[in-house]
């Protein structure tokens, strides 16, 4: 293999891919960095200038082509920086990462230092710029300009993203401008007196995050350049060695290679260990504190937009990499740019989840940073230890226990859990220069010292401390410092592992049995890919049903994220292709946990258990770092011409391209190792890249819903336009998928209500989907927005203001007259235009933020089925759109905007109660209309009715209806979804009676209509003589027609037993013809519905009152059972009531007991008999006049609540009165039927039944 072939072919298994030098290009001179947003009022020495990639080696590799512009931008995000000898010239280190379209990453490590400018062209250019600035500043300061202050005052109103950087530098600019007029001050430059320095960056690009090794190599390289003593070999030898001769360490092994000043050790985890992660998590926790760090990780897991801010680039990278490392086994699927330079600040407008970091200039304030999505973003001020999380962020499961465990780990390593950098004690370090001791140190690193030798070395170190030797080693550091650095590196590595194991253990506990809920529905990969969008791959409802209630808020939202979907997709695809390495590692850890998990019950109950594998994993890392398994070839002389590689102290040499553009594979060992390990290294590199091979990635590229990451780093106008085009397409696609998911899930729930399937959604899941819709709308309205606020609410406020200016007084009066609207029978005039809904939210949502008000408005519009219509009306004001948005904004793309609204329109086919159930504390206006039978409506004149409306959240209290009217309007606290209505009348006269058809209740705010069917008489001397009815309601369409519910998309719930049902039971002859099999089947069905109700999760359960008292409920089924075969001697075949029989039975029992004639052989007085008599007498003694049907309903409800009904039924069947009252074929006289029914009722005794207040009011039992 030739040298060139070796260099490119073995790139995937080399330690480093590229070596890069960035700095000032003396040929092109100084070019101002327009993208930095800096004004000319700043001193030239404080301005940013464009940097260039001066050299990079090799030219390119096959799998990782060199992106010159992107790497230059990331190496020097602020461009060139100039200094003079009067300022600090400390070198700095930072790292960065580049994501590729296939999901892999490359890591860059940058050492930036200041080098004296020797180019006369650059010095002259800087001198000229400074003279121009001095003249302009002097003339500007001599003349007062009031216009400047007015323009400055008006500038915050624009606050667009284009002025982001200038707003950050505002305070800095003012301070510099005031001082630059005097020579010798900060920011001044006099070529006759000052020496000019410019920044230069050395960068090493590696396939894996070898942070410590790369940092040491670059630091030693810089020390060799600045040292007055020339290094043993030319700089090219060390660069050539790291690029072409140092391989990646094999998995589970460590590798020792040589830098300029000394050996460097790096290691890689083994196959069963967590992936490589060297970024110091201890530093991240120290910067933010445990509480803030957990909150930040929660935001990342829920895929909110995360923006990091710090003046130090390496802090941005440390926190960002810490987040992505700790969320194992999941992977961040969206934009990931820990360092965003000024030319890329337009990406902060991205309407998608992102994890990005920006540098804050010196003196800049948080208030000066204006962001379009600020209301829905997690903003992290690293320097001030502050995390601003979005509203309504759920807590991470077992939040307190997790905080406690993490705090204990940090305390073991001497770090305060609340954050803050700990000071190292200022102790005198030993300074030994003995060559023997240096050799011993090297043997110690390699693990070649036994116990005796180590003891000798420790005694030598102790002696050195006592002697306090001052001689420095050739590396520029004392050997004591070297020891300290090694110990700190080892300590950081062990802390990293232990913190990561804590989080990995948490995810193992939460998702330990996730495989049981993965749905494998496709026969092959192609069919699964073609039906991906319509395929359900994970049973979320079942998974949530077995989770602790405290975890549901977080988990329901996490299951909707792209990272979890991608994780599940990987599991499905593993049936046909090799599993992704991360998933394979997670699954193997789960299998291991199950193997050693003896407490099965503990694991199923999800009790918090502390991590037990952290210490073992840390020991493995320690062993590798203390004993190198392999040693790379040493740097050696290259085939360089005489005169090349000359050392010039303080200046990085001009590298010789002829020896660095290709690998001189002169060492047989290097070639042999590269060839023998190539296959293994390729495989393991893919593992560390957290992905699968390219072929598999192409098969399911859809699963990674990422933009083209390489294009994001292109700041050209064409690339920026293309990126925003992709954002627009992504928003439209997300809207289509979200609305489709909401429809599928909601219709799945409706099929359950129709008895066509099992539930696959809970109320919590529905809230989660609607929360996702709110987030989508907020991001959509924030794309291209020029103002800082809640994006959607600010648009609504501007629209409201514009509407107010155009509104005429007549229109205003017409609008207010809606409050006096009257209603026809059974019909509702819908109120609530866009403006009216806004006003309602503004008046009733005090204390809510702008984001909260926007979400309330979305919930209300969605419940009213007006969301698409309202948004369409909002977007009709084209002039306002052009004022608020930039030209690339989604809302200015007409075709996509129309499709977006069309997808939202599809949500009108289903019913939501999202506003009613979420905003429970607001006041709602209700209108109640009593509708009598039309032929007898005149009878309402003598009736003095009252109503009491009850719902999920409470009741309205008794509301008296004015005489001679049939409706009442009242306002009360939100009752939730309405369930029951008590209807009664005060007048008990013989003429005060009316046949009520139904009662309609209208929610004035949401437009919902509830129908409470009655079909019975209300009054004395008619029917069962009831003066009070408890009615069961159903939600119907706003039109109020009886059959309107079938068109709403949501089927009506079971209602009160209607008059038509009563008519069937209206004569004795019809009762005798009832089939006993049908009655028994109805009874079993009613009991079965109750059992299924209690076996569902609480969020999924329906209305228990409907199952008890509604049509087909337990009360009616039991009434039919007791009516079967009941004799009647009444004239004209009038209705008979079961309550008559129950009352007679109790009277007979009590009479027989008093007379001592209980037929002891057959009946014995006992607890069931006593309780039956007690309950019946208590119901009869109730002050409520609820009639015989109401009393029987109360009798059944109390009996089933107190677990007595199953004992009462056999008692009634055995009583002698039964034989005289029922025919021979009656079910109550059938011992088998009674025994079967008693067993069915007994199964309900295991459930705790809570009755609505409306059912048991007035009965003290």
Automatic annotation (TrEMBL):
Q: Which GO terms describe its cellular component?
A: membrane
Q: Which Pfam families match?
A: dDENN, DENN, PLAT, RUN, uDENN
**Quick one: where's region Disordered?**
137-166
Q: Where in the cell is it found?
A: Membrane
Q: Where is the PLAT domain?
A: 924-1032
Enumerate the SUPFAM superfamilies for this protein: Lipase/lipooxygenase domain (PLAT/LH2 domain), RUN domain-like
Q: Which InterPro entries does the record cross-reference, listed alphabetically?
A: cDENN_dom, dDENN_dom, DEN5A/B, DENN_C, PLAT/LH2_dom, PLAT/LH2_dom_sf, PLAT_RAB6IP1, Run_dom
Q: Where is it mostly found?
A: membrane
Tell me which residues make up the RUN domain.
764-922, 1105-1256
What family classification does the UniProt entry report for this protein?
Belongs to the RAB6IP1 family.
Q: What is this protein called?
A: DENN domain containing 5B
Q: Which organism is it from?
A: Eleginops maclovinus
């Amino acid at each position: 293999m030739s040298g060139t072939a070796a260099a490119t072919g073995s790139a995937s298994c080399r330690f480093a891919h590229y070596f890069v030098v960035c700095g000032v290009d003396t040929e092109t001179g100084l070019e101002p960095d327009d993208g930095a947003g800096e004004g000319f009022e700043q001193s030239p020495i404080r301005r940013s200038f464009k940097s260039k990639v001066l050299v990079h080696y090799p030219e390119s590799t096959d799998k990782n082509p060199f992106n010159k512009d992107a790497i230059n931008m990331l190496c020097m995000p602020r461009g060139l920086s100039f200094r003079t000898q009067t300022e600090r010239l400390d070198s700095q280190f930072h790292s960065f990462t580049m994501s590729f379209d296939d999901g892999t990453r490359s890591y860059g490590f940058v050492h930036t230092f200041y080098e004296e400018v020797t180019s006369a062209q650059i010095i002259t250019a800087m001198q000229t710029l400074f003279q121009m600035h001095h003249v302009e500043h002097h003339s500007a300061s001599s003349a007062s300009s009031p216009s400047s202050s007015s323009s400055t005052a008006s500038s915050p109103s624009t606050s667009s993203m284009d002025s982001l950087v200038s707003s950050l530098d505002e305070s800095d600019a003012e301070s510099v401008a005031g001082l630059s007029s005097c020579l010798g001050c900060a920011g001044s430059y006099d070529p006759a007196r000052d020496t000019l320095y410019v920044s230069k960056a050395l960068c090493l690009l590696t396939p894996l995050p070898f942070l410590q090794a790369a940092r040491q190599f670059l630091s030693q390289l810089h020390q060799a350049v600045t040292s007055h003593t020339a290094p043993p070999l030319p700089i090219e030898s060390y660069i050539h060695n790291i690029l072409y001769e140092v391989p990646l360490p094999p998995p589970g092994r460590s590798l020792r290679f040589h830098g300029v000043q000394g050996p460097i050790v790096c290691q890689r985890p083994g196959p069963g260990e967590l992936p490589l992660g060297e970024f110091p998590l201890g530093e991240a926790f120290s910067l933010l504190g445990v509480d803030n760090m957990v909150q930040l990780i929660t935001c990342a897991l829920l895929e909110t937009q995360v923006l990091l801010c710090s003046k130090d680039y390496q802090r941005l990278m440390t926190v960002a990499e810490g987040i992505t490392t700790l969320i194992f086994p999941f992977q961040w699927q969206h934009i990931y740019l820990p360092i965003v330079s000024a030319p890329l600040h337009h990406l902060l407008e991205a309407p998608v989840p992102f994890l990005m970091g920006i540098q804050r200039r010196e003196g800049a304030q948080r208030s000066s940073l204006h962001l379009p999505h600020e209301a829905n973003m997690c903003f992290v001020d690293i320097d001030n230890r502050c995390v601003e999380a979005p509203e309504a962020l759920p807590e991470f499961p077992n939040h307190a226990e997790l905080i406690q465990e993490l705090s204990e780990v940090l305390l073991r390593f001497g770090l305060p859990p609340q954050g803050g950098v700990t000071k190292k004690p200022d102790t005198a370090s030993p300074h030994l220069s003995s060559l023997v001791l240096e050799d011993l140190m090297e043997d110690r690193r390699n693990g070649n010292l036994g116990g005796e030798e180590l003891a000798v070395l420790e005694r030598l170190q102790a002696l050195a401390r006592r002697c306090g030797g001052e001689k420095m080693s050739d590396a520029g550091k004392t050997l004591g410092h070297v020891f300290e650095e090694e110990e700190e590196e080892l300590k950081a590595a062990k802390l990293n592992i232990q913190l990561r194991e804590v989080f990995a253990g948490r995810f193992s506990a939460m998702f330990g049995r996730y495989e049981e809920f993965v749905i494998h529905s496709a026969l092959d990969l192609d069919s699964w890919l073609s039906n991906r969008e319509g395929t359900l791959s994970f049973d979320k409802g079942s998974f949530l049903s077995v989770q602790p209630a405290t975890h549901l808020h977080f988990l329901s939202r996490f299951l909707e994220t792209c990272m979890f979907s991608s994780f599940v997709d990987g599991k499905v695809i593993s049936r046909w292709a090799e599993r992704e390495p991360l998933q394979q590692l997670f699954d193997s850890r789960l299998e291991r946990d199950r193997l050693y998990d003896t407490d099965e019950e503990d694991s199923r109950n999800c009790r918090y258990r502390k991590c037990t594998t952290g210490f073992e994993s840390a020991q493995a890392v320690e062993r590798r770092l203390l004993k190198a398994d392999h040693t790379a070839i040493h740097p050696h002389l290259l085939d360089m011409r005489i005169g090349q590689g000359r050392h010039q102290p303080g200046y990085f040499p001009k590298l010789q391209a002829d020896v660095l553009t290709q690998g001189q594979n002169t060492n047989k060992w290097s070639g042999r190792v590269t060839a023998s390990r190539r296959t293994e290294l390729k495989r393991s590199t893919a593992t560390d890249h957290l992905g699968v091979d390219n072929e598999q990635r192409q098969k399911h590229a859809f699963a990674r819903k990422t933009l083209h990451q390489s294009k994001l780093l292109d700041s050209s106008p064409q690339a920026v336009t293309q990126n925003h085009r992709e954002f627009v397409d992504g928003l439209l696609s997300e809207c289509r998928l979200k609305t489709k998911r909401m429809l599928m899930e909601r219709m799945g729930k409706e099929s359950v209500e129709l008895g066509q399937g099992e539930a696959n959604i809970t109320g919590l899941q529905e809230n989660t989907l609607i929360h996702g819709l709110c987030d989508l709308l907020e991001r959509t309205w924030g794309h291209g927005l020029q103002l800082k606020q809640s994006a959607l609410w600010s648009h609504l406020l501007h629209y409201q203001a514009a509407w107010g200016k155009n509104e005429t007084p007549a229109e205003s009066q017409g609008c207010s007259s809606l409050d006096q609207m009257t209603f026809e029978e059974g019909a509702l005039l819908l109120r609530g235009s866009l403006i009216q809904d806004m006003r309602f939210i503004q008046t009733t949502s005090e204390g809510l933020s702008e984001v909260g008000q926007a979400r309330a408005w979305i919930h209300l519009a969605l419940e009213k089925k007006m969301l698409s219509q309202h948004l369409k009306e909002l977007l009709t004001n084209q002039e306002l759109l052009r004022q608020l948005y930039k030209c690339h904004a989604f809302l200015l793309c007409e075709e996509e905007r129309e499709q977006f609204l069309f997808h939202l329109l599809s949500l009108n086919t289903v019913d939501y109660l999202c506003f009613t159930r979420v905003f429970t504390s607001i006041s709602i206006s209700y209108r109640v209309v009593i509708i009598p039978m039309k032929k007898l409506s005149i009878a309402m004149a003598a009736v003095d009715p009252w109503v009491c409306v009850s719902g999920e959240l409470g009741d309205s209290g008794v509301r008296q209806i004015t005489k001679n009217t049939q409706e009442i309007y009242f306002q009360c606290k939100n009752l939730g979804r309405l369930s029951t209505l008590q209807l009664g009348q005060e007048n008990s006269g013989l003429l005060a009676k009316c046949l009520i058809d139904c009662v309609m209740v209208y929610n004035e705010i949401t437009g919902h209509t509830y129908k409470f069917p009655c079909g019975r008489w209300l009054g004395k001397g008619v029917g069962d003589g009831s003066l009070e009815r408890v009615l069961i309601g159903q939600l119907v369409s706003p039109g109020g027609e009886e059959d309107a519910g079938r068109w709403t998309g949501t089927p009506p719930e079971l209602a009160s037993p209607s008059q038509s049902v009563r008519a069937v039971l209206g004569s004795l002859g019809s009762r005798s013809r009832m089939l006993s099999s049908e009655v028994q089947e109805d009874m079993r069905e009613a009991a079965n519905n109750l059992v299924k109700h209690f076996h569902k999760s609480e969020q999924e359960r329906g209305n228990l009152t409907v199952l008890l008292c509604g049509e087909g409920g337990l009360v009616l089924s039991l009434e039919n059972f007791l009516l079967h075969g009941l004799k009647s001697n009444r004239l004209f075949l009038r209705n008979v009531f079961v309550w008559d029989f129950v009352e007679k039975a109790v009277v007979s029992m009590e009479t027989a007991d008093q007379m001592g004639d209980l037929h002891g052989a057959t009946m014995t007085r006992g607890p069931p008999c006593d309780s039956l008599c007690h309950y019946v007498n208590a119901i009869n003694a109730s002050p409520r006049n609820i009639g015989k049907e109401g009393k029987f309903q109360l009798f059944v409800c109390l009996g089933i609540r107190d677990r007595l009904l199953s004992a009462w039924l056999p008692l009634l069947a055995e009583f002698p009165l039964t034989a005289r009252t029922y025919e021979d074929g009656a079910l109550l006289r059938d011992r088998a039927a009674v025994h079967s029914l008693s067993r069915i009722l007994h199964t309900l005794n295991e459930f705790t039944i809570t009755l609505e207040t409306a059912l048991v009011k007035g009965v003290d039992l």
